[in-house]
Amino acid sequence: xxxxxxxxxxxxxxxxxxxxxxxxxxxxxxxxxxxxxxxxxxxxxxxxxxxxxxxxxxxxxxxxxxxxxxxxxxxxxxxxxxxxxxxxxxxxxxxxxxxxxxxxxxxxxxxxxxxxxxxxxxxxxxxxxxxxxxxxxxxxxxxxxxxxxxxxxxxxxxxxxxxxxxxxxxxxxxxxxxxxxxxxxxxxxxxxxxxxxxxxxxxxxxxxxxxxxxxxxxxxx
Length: 221
Description:
mainly alpha, DNA polymerase, domain 1, 2 domains, 45% helix, 10% strand
């Protein structure tokens, strides 16, 4: 139990109490008089009641005390959760592509089957094999298409930039795969809004009138 005591050398009153197992002495500026003792004793009763209730705030009660920092509430720092690794329940592109090819190839001629398998082997599997179906988004496909027509992205097996018609066929294969994935798993089709590249028109140069007349002159009636 705490007490109100007096320092003989100064004649000033001070609190003498225990908090969290530590003996604490906090001095007041009040001289030792009966009225001041009663005032200090009432304050000490309040302090001990708060200590018993677990609500005593040392720094608030004695804001100028050097001891207050020893009893500052410890703030529990909750570590930031580690970023979660996204786990997809959908198959990877290579597994789904193999299944799709097995199911669809019975509808194709041998020459077409060979062409499709070549597109997957050379272009699609190197780019998307390890990705889950729902990891393939529009941004990845647009970047993939850019690499197909970018001369700085030449592959060892492709010496020249691919023609627009070839690029359209490659993206068309991805479109078929992702359309099937949409039907089976309900995922968005990232190919839905990707437009086909424009094809170059064949430069047709008809005969001039002079050439036509010259050919007519050489044709037997």
